[in-house]
Amino acid sequence: MIIDLSSLISGKVSKIDFQYTIDTNDENNQIIPPDDVSFTAPVRVSGSVCDNAGYTVLNAHAEIDYKTRCARCLEDVFGTFVLEFNRTVAISGTLQNEDNDDYVVVKNGLLDIDREIVEELLLEFPTRFLCKEECAGLCPKCGKNLNFGPCDCPKKKEIDPRLAILQKLLEND
Ligand SMILES: [Zn+2]
Ligand SMILES: [Zn+2]
């Protein structure tokens, strides 16, 4: 969504609220998810642009439903990622250096919120998901999902690390 800030810039209003959805499959506005991730619903966006003692500030909140796979056991994982951020909005021509990431530079009074959301989303979206914190993963030998119980592969005997050092010393003698 592109918001016309002219009423805010001219001081007619001190706040502009917005609430809308971004269709992630829209041809013109497609959001390419990271590998192994799909966005399962339109992104729900809300927030405001307001005048804060002479500064124009964008506050944005976005919720993104996703489907991905557990990094350990590869089972499907569904969830909602919540993104919150704010930015100072600067009118083009008023900044000395417009290559500053802390600002959104607005030309002709038009603020493209989608662009800010998509940029922040792709930056902040986690690269790794687990189905649960204590996911046991897959057996590296037989591939069985160990969350459903142990497999029949022979287990390596765990040697106490202190004994292992002692054993090494004895072997070197
Ligand atoms: Zn898992
Ligand atoms: Zn196994």
Instruction: Determine the fraction of residues in helical runs and give it as a percent range.
Output: 10-25%
**Subunit organisation of the chains:** single chain
Uncertain ranges? none
Number of strands: 8
Global outline: elongated
The span between the termini is 75 Å
Strand content: 35-45%
Number of domains: 2
Can you count the helices? 3
Largest beta-sheet characterization:
6 strands, mixed
Give me the Rg, rounded.
25 Å
Small molecules bound in the structure, each named once: zinc ion
SSE layout and pairings?
Blueprint: E1 2-4, H1 6-9, E2 15-22, E3 38-39, E4 43-52, E5 55-69, E6 76-91, E7 103-106, E8 110-112, H2 113-124, H3 161-172
Parallel strand pairs: 6-7
Antiparallel strand pairs: 1-8, 2-4, 3-5, 4-5, 5-6
This protein binds zinc ion (2 copies).
Could you walk me through the main structural features you see in this protein, from its secondary elements to its overall organization?
The protein has helices at 6-9, 113-124, 161-172, and strands at residues 2-4, 15-22, 38-39, 43-52, 55-69, 76-91, 103-106, 110-112. By secondary structure, the chain is of the alpha+beta class. The protein has two domains: 2-124, no CATH class; 137-173, no CATH class. It is elongated. Bound molecules: zinc ion (2 copies). One zinc ion binds next to loops. One zinc ion binds at residues 70, 72-73, 75, 130-131, 135.
Keywords:
173 residues; alpha+beta; 6-stranded mixed sheet; two-stranded antiparallel sheet; 3 helices; 8 strands; elongated; binds zinc ion
